[in-house]
Amino acid sequence: MTLILTNDDGIDAPGIKALLKAVEKYETIIAAPKEHQSGCGHQVTTTRSIPLLQRSEWEYAIGGTPADCSRIALTHICPGAKFVLSGINAGGNLGVDAYISGTVAAVREAAMLGVPAIAISHYRKGKLNYDWNMASKLTAKVLEDLLNRSWEVGTFWNVNLPHLQPGEPEPEIIFCQPCNKPLPVNYRIEGDEFYYVGDYSKRERTPGSDVEVCFAGNIAVTQLRI
């Protein structure tokens, strides 16, 4: 089974290396943005060329968005791919984040093209460092389940890993609904310029939703629909 790996943090980000480690037993192709594309949503490129650099037999740096990467990978690089995996994103993509996230857009695009797909993100507490080895282990555990499930056409999975500290218990995998509360919309204003200062950790949350599950130290898995 061939998996396409992509992201929105860029092809050289540590998260995609952690994702590659999590799926090392599978045949993989990396088709990821050449540059950082975080927060670009489902933007696609239609008014300029999209450069593609083949770095190796299985690695492609694409000068476009995450959705562009899924499109090009599934239509030209590896049309027979069985799954698209996006991540591991440095930062959570919970609830309404899915509309903003390039990580999630890559798998939504795959689902639109008739291919099952999973987005994986890693919530971050404050400015604490990521443990990418742990993220890789947790991702492998989740994928062992999701990659073997039957796929419902028109859906895709959104996975969010918690930010665990040493000594904290092993997280549970919890299937839940996405939070429908808005993100904090707070700005610092200096003259005519607005600087976003919303505190992600203080966002509102729907009881039992992915935000609450992930913030409580568990792995939140939601099934989203086109």
Strand content: 25-35%
Please state the structural category. alpha/beta
CATH superfamily: Survival protein SurE-like phosphatase/nucleotidase
Ends distance:
24 Å
Question: Helix and strand succession?
Answer: EHEEEHEHEHEEEEHE
Helix content bin: 10-25%
Q: Biggest sheet, open or closed, and with what strands and sense?
A: 9 strands, mixed
Low-confidence region ranges: none
The chain-level mean pLDDT equals 96
CATH architecture: 3-Layer(aba) Sandwich
- Domains, number: 1
Which fold does the CATH topology refer to?
Stationary-phase Survival Protein Sure Homolog, Chain: A
Give the overall form. globular
Q: What is the radius of gyration?
A: 17 Å
> How many alpha or pi helices?
5
Trace the largest sheet across and list its strands. 3-4-2-1-5-6-7-11-8
Overview in brief:
The chain contains 5 helices and 11 strands.
Describe it for me?
This protein is an alpha/beta fold and 226 residues long. The strands form 2 sheets. A 9-stranded mixed β-sheet has the order 3-4-2-1-5-6-7-11-8, sandwiched between helices. The mean pLDDT is 96. The longest helix has 15 residues, at 132-146. Helices cover 23% and strands 26% of the residues. It has one domain (2-180, 207-225): Stationary-phase Survival Protein Sure Homolog, Chain: A.
